[in-house]
Amino acid sequence: MHGGAAAVAGADPMAEPLIRLRGVTKTYGEGPTAFQALKGVDLDIAAGDFVAVMGPSGSGKSTTMNMLGCLDVPSGGEFLFRGVHVETLDRDQRALLRRRYLGFVFQGFNLLARTTALENVELPLLYRGDAKQARRDLAMAALDKVGLKDWWDHTPAELSGGQQQRVAIARAIVTHPDVLLADEPTGNLDSERSVEIMELLTDLNQNSGITVLMVTHEPDMAAFAHTIVHFKDGLVERIETQSQSPSRLREGGEK
């Protein structure tokens, strides 16, 4: 199915993978200074998967994540989301797709310093035009889901790094997205807080059905994913599938 943002809602998500890349290329610049960041990426991502994207600097992983987040478009090839050819959408149509289906989490949290946790989580709903009470109810529910319901009136300066990232995750899921894109979500955290954030992402994936796409440089964090996609030189080098993540092992009683 080709078409605009209206077509996104009408696509059959069961007909094919949630996300499909075929021969995707991305070139920056022109002429002798042109740089080809992606050289023909093929990748399928199923709904409900937890995917870690890894690779050295310049491998194409960040360019691919920008593409998957509808923040950029391919120079060539096909990018299908829920059966819709995203490469044919204009800027406004891609923005609608982002608002409806995607949530974003960043390494630096990106919280507003002088606003409370609740107000930070409400922001996407404010942009969406939700009424005040509806915003509050949805934001409180999201904070509860990440274990911070009792911290709703605290500003970022009054929260630990792990708590700030939980607020950022609550903000990302408050619109009930299909896909959560996380760019180095544990990069600014110590090992204990990192594991807590990964366990939260695993819970959202397993119990809320959110597809998680995460860029990480840390093998210990990638181990929480079901699928690990390794990039090298603008291509998918290999894909690993894991039957059990560390959190699943703990649930099964292993140490």
From TrEMBL:
It comes from the Bacteria. It comes from Sphingomonas sanxanigenens DSM 19645 = NX02. This is ABC transporter. Residues 19-255 form the ABC transporter domain. InterPro entries: AAA+_ATPase, ABC_transporter-like_ATP-bd, ABC_transporter-like_CS, ABC_transpr_LolD-like, MacB-like_ATP-bd, P-loop_NTPase. One of its GO terms (molecular function) is ATP hydrolysis activity. Pfam families: ABC_tran (PF00005). CDD domains: ABC_MJ0796_LolCDE_FtsE. SUPFAM superfamilies: P-loop containing nucleoside triphosphate hydrolases. One of its GO terms (cellular component) is plasma membrane. Transmembrane segments: none annotated. Belongs to the ABC transporter superfamily. Macrolide exporter (TC 3.A.1.122) family. Keywords: ATP-binding, Cell inner membrane, Cell membrane, Membrane, Nucleotide-binding, Transport. The keyword ATP-binding applies.
